[in-house]
C-alpha cells in the first residue's frame, strides 16, 4: 500500500514540477483555439469549408479531430523530448539531490517515476486535452453547418460514435508509439542523468558520430549511409503508411477504429519493439547506477 | 558491538589517487549526541556520506545493521539527515511537500511537521522557493523532526544562519526531538554553540580520527593552563601538547597531566571545545 502511495507521490512530484509544459500551456492553446474558432464564426471567416467540397459535416469533424490529435501528439513529442532532457537531471540542477537521497526511495525508482510520468501521465493529460478540443471542434462544425446549409450536421450520436472511434484509435496509436519510441526517450533521459540538458543535442550528436566513424571505417564498402544509419532510419519511423492515411481522407464511410488499429498492429515490428523496451530498461538501470554515485 | 547504531571499521575513501579517509574505526551507541568536528577538507562530510550510503568506500560500515551503500533506501526509513538546508524542492509549496512526504516516508508525520512550524513564519501555502534561508532551515528541521528516525545526521545544518536562528535550531532539536532511543550526529564549525548539548566528541584531521571520547572524559583528560611568563619553564616541563600566547599570558593544553600539579603553576581549567580543537588540530603545537 505504501509502495503505491510512494509511486503516486513521485508521479505527483513530477507533475507539479512540470505541469506548466503539460497542463497550463496546453490549456492556454485550448483557450486560443476556442477564441480563434469563436472569432472565425463571429466574423464569418469559415468560407474555406466550401473549398474542401465535403458535404458531410461528419467527415469534416472526423478529419478535423484526427488532425487535432496529430497536432497534439506533435506537441507531446516535442515537450516529451525536452522533459526527458531536463527532468532526469533536475534534482542535480535544483540542488535537491541530498533531499531526495534522504528519502527511502531507490535511485532506480526515482528515475522510473520520471520515466513513467513522461511516458504515461503527461500523454494521458494530452489525450484528455485533445479530446476536449475534439468536442470543441464538433461544436464549431455544428455552428458552421448552420451558417453553411450545404454541410450536413452530424447527429450527436453519430458524431459521438466517430468521436469514440477516433479517440480509441488515437489512444492505441499513442500507446504503441510510446512503446516504440521508449528506447529513444530512455536514451535522452539516460544522457540527461549524466550530461544534464546537454543531452538534448547529444541525443543526436552521439549516434551521428557513430555513423560518421562507421562510414570512415567501412570506407564506402557498406550499405549507403552505413549499417547504423540504415537501422536508425528504419527504427525512427512508426505508424500507418501513406495509403492508410489517404484512405482515411477519401473514404466517405465513418472512421473505423478497429480496422485501422488492426492495420497498425499488423505494421508493427514486434521484435524491434520488444528489443527497444529491453534497451530502454537497460539504459534506465545504468542511469540509476550513475545517479546512485552522484550527490550533486 | 552489536548494540551500536553505527559501526565503522577501516573506512577508507579515495578520490582518484588521493586517499581522503585513512581507515577510520569507531562505534556510535544509541541515545548519544555526537559532534564530528574537523577543518574544511578533513573528511567529515565524506565520513557522513559513507554512513548515509551516498558514496562508495573501502572497509566496513554498518548503520542500524545495514550496509548503507547497498541499502540506502531501506536505511532511510530509520535515518534522517540534513546535508544542506537549501536542498528542499523549491517548486513545491510547504503543504505539498508534507503531503508528498506523508506518502513517500513511512515514518513521517505531516501533522507533527505542521505542529513544529506553528508559531514560525513558515506558512503551509508558502512556496519553498520564496522562503528565506532561516525559514528553509526551520522547515527542513521540522521535516526531519517529523520523521520517527533512530539516527539523525546534521551536516552543517545552520551554515549561513544568524545567531538567533542557530540557537533556536539547536534548542528545538533538544527539546522536541531527542529521546533516549535516538542518536544525533552533528558536524559544524561553530563548535562552541553545540558544546552544551554534546555527549560525545570526535575530532577528525586529514582523514584520521584524532579524538573520540565522551564529553565527561574530555574534562578528565585535558587541562588548559593559563600561566605567567615566570612559571613558563615549569609548565613546559609538564609537556603541554599545545601552547599559544594571549594578551601576554601563555595558554597551554595538557593531555593526561595531573591537574593539581598544574593548578600550582597557574590557572587550570577544562578547555572549551574550541580551545581543544585548536590544540589538537593545529599543525604547529607552539610548544617550542
TrEMBL record, chain A:
InterPro entries per record: ABC2_memb-like
Keyword entries, A-Z: Membrane, Transmembrane, Transmembrane helix
Record bears the keyword Membrane: yes
Pfam entry (one): ABC2_membrane_5
Highest taxon of source: Bacteria
Signal peptide boundaries: none
Segments traversing the membrane: 21-43, 63-84, 119-148, 168-188, 200-220, 270-287
Keyword Secreted carried by entry: no
The protein's name in its UniProt record: ABC-2 transporter permease
From TrEMBL, chain B:
Signal peptide positions on this chain: none
Organism: Devosia nanyangense
Protein name: ABC transporter ATP-binding protein
PANTHER family hit by this protein: ABC TRANSPORTER ATP-BINDING PROTEIN ALBC-RELATED
Highest taxon of the lineage: Bacteria
Keywords assigned by UniProt, alphabetized: ATP-binding, Nucleotide-binding, Transport
Sequence ranges assigned to domain ABC transporter in this UniProt record: 6-231
Keyword Membrane: no
Pfam families with a match to the protein in the record: ABC_tran
PROSITE patterns on file: ABC_TRANSPORTER_2
UniProt xrefs under InterPro entries: AAA+_ATPase (IPR003593), ABC_transporter-like_ATP-bd (IPR003439), ABC_Transporter_VariousFunc (IPR051782), P-loop_NTPase (IPR027417)
Gene Ontology terms for molecular function: ATP binding; ATP hydrolysis activity
Amino acid at each position: 500500500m505504501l509502495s503505491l502511495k510512494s509511486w503516486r507521490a513521485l508521479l505527483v512530484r513530477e507533475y507539479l514540477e512540470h505541469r506548466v509544459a503539460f497542463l497550463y500551456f496546453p490549456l492556454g492553446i485550448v483557450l486560443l483555439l476556442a477564441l480563434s474558432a469563436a472569432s472565425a464564426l463571429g466574423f464569418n471567416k469559415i468560407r474555406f469549408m466550401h473549398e474542401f467540397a465535403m458535404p458531410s459535416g461528419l467527415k469534416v469533424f472526423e478529419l478535423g479531430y484526427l488532425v487535432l490529435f496529430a497536432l497534439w501528439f506533435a506537441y507531446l513529442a516535442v515537450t516529451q523530448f525536452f522533459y526527458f532532457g531536463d527532468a532526469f537531471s533536475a534534482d542535480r540542477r535544483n540542488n535537491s539531490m541530498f533531499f531526495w537521497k534522504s528519502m527511502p526511495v531507490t535511485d532506480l525508482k526515482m528515475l522510473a517515476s520520471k520515466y513513467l510520468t513522461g511516458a504515461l501521465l503527461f500523454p494521458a493529460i494530452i489525450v484528455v486535452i485533445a479530446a476536449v478540443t475534439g468536442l470543441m471542434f464538433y461544436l464549431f462544425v455544428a455552428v458552421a453547418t448552420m451558417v453553411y446549409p450545404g454541410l450536413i450536421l452530424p447527429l450527436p450520436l453519430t458524431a459521438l460514435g466517430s468521436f469514440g472511434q477516433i479517440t480509441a484509435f488515437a489512444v492505441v496509436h499513442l500507446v504503441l508509439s510510446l512503446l516504440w519510441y521508449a528506447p529513444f526517450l530512455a536514451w535522452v533521459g539516460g544522457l540527461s542523468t549524466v550530461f544534464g540538458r546537454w543531452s538534448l543535442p547529444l541525443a543526436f550528436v552521439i549516434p551521428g558520430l557513430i555513423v560518421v566513424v562507421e562510414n570512415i571505417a567501412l570506407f564506402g564498402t557498406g550499405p549507403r549511409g552505413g549499417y547504423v544509419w540504415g537501422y536508425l532510419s528504419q527504427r525512427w519511423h512508426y505508424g500507418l503508411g501513406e495509403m492508410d492515411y489517404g484512405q482515411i481522407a477519401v473514404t466517405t464511410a465513418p472512421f473505423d477504429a478497429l480496422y485501422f488499429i488492426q492495420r497498425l498492429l499488423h505494421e508493427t515490428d514486434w521484435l524491434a519493439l520488444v528489443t527497444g523496451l529491453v534497451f530502454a530498461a537497460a539504459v534506465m538501470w545504468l542511469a540509476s547506477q550513475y545517479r546512485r554515485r552522484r550527490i550533486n | 558491538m552489536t548494540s551500536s547504531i553505527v559501526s565503522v571499521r577501516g573506512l577508507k575513501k579515495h578520490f582518484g589517487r588521493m586517499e581522503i579517509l585513512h581507515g577510520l574505526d569507531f562505534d556510535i551507541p544509541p541515545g548519544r549526541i555526537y559532534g564530528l568536528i574537523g577543518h574544511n577538507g578533513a573528511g567529515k562530510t565524506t565520513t557522513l556520506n559513507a554512513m548515509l550510503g551516498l558514496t562508495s568506500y573501502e572497509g566496513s560500515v554498518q548503520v542500524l545493521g545495514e550496509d548503507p551503500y547497498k541499502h540506502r533506501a531501506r536505511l532511510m526509513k530509520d535515518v534522517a539527515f540534513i546535508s544542506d538546508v537549501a536542498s528542499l524542492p523549491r517548486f513545491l509549496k510547504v503543504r505539498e511537500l508534507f503531503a508528498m512526504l506523508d506518502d513517500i516516508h513511512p515514518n513521517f508525520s505531516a501533522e507533527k511537521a505542521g505542529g513544529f512550524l506553528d508559531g514560525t513564519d513558515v506558512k503551509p501555502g508558502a512556496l519553498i522557493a520564496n522562503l528565506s534561508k532561516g525559514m528553509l532551515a526551520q522547515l527542513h528541521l521540522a521535516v526531519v523532526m517529523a520523521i520517527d528516525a533512530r539516527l539523525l545526521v546534521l551536516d552543517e545544518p545552520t551554515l549561513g544562519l544568524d545567531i538567533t536562528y542557530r540557537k533556536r535550531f539547536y534548542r528545538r532539536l533538544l527539546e522536541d526531538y531527542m529521546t533516549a532511543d535516538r542518536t544525533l550526529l552533528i558536524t559544524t564549525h561553530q563548535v562552541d554553540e553545540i558544546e552544551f548539548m554534546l555527549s560525545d566528541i570526535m575530532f577528525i584531521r586529514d582523514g584520521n580520527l584524532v579524538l573520540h571520547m565522551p564529553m565527561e572524559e574530555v574534562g578528565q583528560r585535558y587541562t588548559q593552563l593559563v600561566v605567567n611568563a615566570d612559571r613558563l619553564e615549569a609548565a613546559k616541563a609538564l609537556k603541554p601538547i599545545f601552547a599559544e600566547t594571549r594578551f601576554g599570558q601563555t595558554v597551554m593544553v595538557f593531555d593526561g597531566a595531573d591537574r593539581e600539579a598544574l593548578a600550582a603553576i597557574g590557572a587550570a581549567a577544562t578547555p572549551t571545545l574550541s580551545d581543544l580543537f585548536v590544540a589538537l588540530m593545529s599543525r604547529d603545537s607552539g610548544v617550542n
